[in-house]
Amino acid sequence: MMHWPTALFIAAVVAATAVELWLAARQVAAVEAHRDRIPDAFAGQLAPEDHRKAADYTVAKIRVGRIGALIDAGLTLVLTVGGGIAAIDALWRHTGWGEPWLGIVVIATVAAVIGVVGLPLSLWRTFRLEAHFGFNRTTPLIFLTDFLKGLALATLIGGPLVLAVLVLMERAGRWWWLAAFACWLAVMILITWAWPACIAPLFNRFSPLQDATLRDRIEALLARCGFRSSGVFVVDGSRRSAHGNAYFTGIGRHKRIVFFDTLLKQLASAEIEAVLAHELGHFRLRHVRQRLLVSCATMLAGFALLGWLAAEPRFYRVLGVPTPSPHAALLLFALVVPVALFFTTPLRSLWSRRHEFAADRFASQHASAQELASALIKLYRDNASTLTPDPLYTAFYYSHPPALERIARLTSAAPAG
User: Fold this and answer.
1) CB under 8 Å to 359, separation ≥6 — which residues?
2) Per the CB 3.0–4.6 Å rule, which of 133, 162, 204, 209 could disulfide with 232?
């Protein structure tokens, strides 16, 4: 007879997947309904063919995403209540290995299964979907090289961290989770510090910004905003994609400003300045610090919850694992948590959208709201982002405000010409 917590978990997975598919269907319907009509606010600023391309690209991504949602749900159920983790665990126990090495190989095997199952869809997205709409520039060699580098980094960084957590779970007593959280925090700080100079260059080439006029403009903006960085760099994002982007990376005095080379080709200098002012707003308004603190608090709570669940034999039984172990606890927790967090997505999205509006206001005060609006219109066009999303889909998923609302606020903030 099925335990009620098992039934509850299955119901949660089914409910989350059903909501995801329902919202996806709403988004597809909304986008297709407006495929042939450009919103009035964008009339004259967007070509009809660009608007139709954005609609078709959005629909295509959602349809692939629906397949991914079904695969993820099925894999979660197969690995947990379907006995997948239990079978892999039993297979490796025949070797006679003990903890923590048994735990390492079981976790590595489950990770490999998840990676293999997800690989075909990743290949399809890159070489069929993105290529069909003219965005993909990744060659099979680059894809393979990126995959191998990512695997090596996961092994070199994630392997020792998992090993340390397994040892702590086995030997550090009831408060092991505090020490495990400290290990996780130390690794995250190390990665953030090392990313700009040591890790990111393994995947891309970074070069100092050569445009002297734009560099002077950016340095003046940084001075106005009281922001210090270790340099402004251009990354060769065009090797993999035609999409444009800009971001900050690093911590402390090692912060870098990075522009995709594709972005620099898309925008004028004043528009780039406005986009950068928006990103600076996130720092000056302490959005980045807030998110880091929330992330740390969430992870601490997660480790505390894991510390309690790992000591409960019923936790394993209701999720399809008859033999409790530290590695089974980690795997089950990693599969259960995303299901629970899915239902908090609207709150996290709302918080993020408010931060985006606040950063837009900051940019309007330190640069030009009109230039930021102009830059966003170009980015929506060149990245084929839909201008007509479904309101419920937006409320649930969008970390950034929808285009019409965002442009309207920026336009109202811009001084009359």
Assistant:
1) 278, 279, 281, 282, 285, 287
2) 209
What is the per-residue pLDDT across 38-86, written as a single tens digit (0 to 9) for each?
Answer: 988 888 888 899 999 999 999 999 999 999 999 999 999 999 999 999 9
Q: Provide the H-helix boundaries in 247-310.
A: 261-266, 269-284, 287-309
Alpha-carbon distance of 69 to 66, in angstroms, equals: 5
- What number of residues does the chain have? 417
Contact 255, 228 (CB under 8 A): yes
**pLDDT band for position 415 (50/70/90)?**
low
Name the residue with tokens 């603190």. Answer: 293
- Nearest by Cα to 153 from 115, 191, 107, 108: 191
Biggest CA–CA distance in the chain, Å, is 77
Q: Which helix (H) or strand (E) holds 216?
A: helix 212-225
**Would the CA dihedral through 405, 44, 30, 12 be positive or negative?**
negative
Handedness of CA 290, 293, 297, 299 (dihedral sign): positive
- Whole-structure pTM value: 0.89
- With H, G, I as helix, E, B as strand and everything else as coil, classify residue 246: strand
Strands (E), 161-299: 206-208, 232-235, 246-249, 256-260
Q: Which residue in 158, 152, 238 sits closest to 191, CA to CA?
A: 158
Burial 103-142 (b: 16+ CB within 10 A, else e): bbbbbbebbebbeeeeeebeeebbeebbeeeebbbbeeee
Contact yes or no for 31/388 (Cβ under 8 A):
yes
Q: What digits encode the pLDDT tens for the residues 271-326?
A: 999 999 998 898 889 898 899 899 999 999 999 999 999 999 999 999 999 999 99
95 Cβ neighbours under 8 A, 6+ residues apart: 102, 105
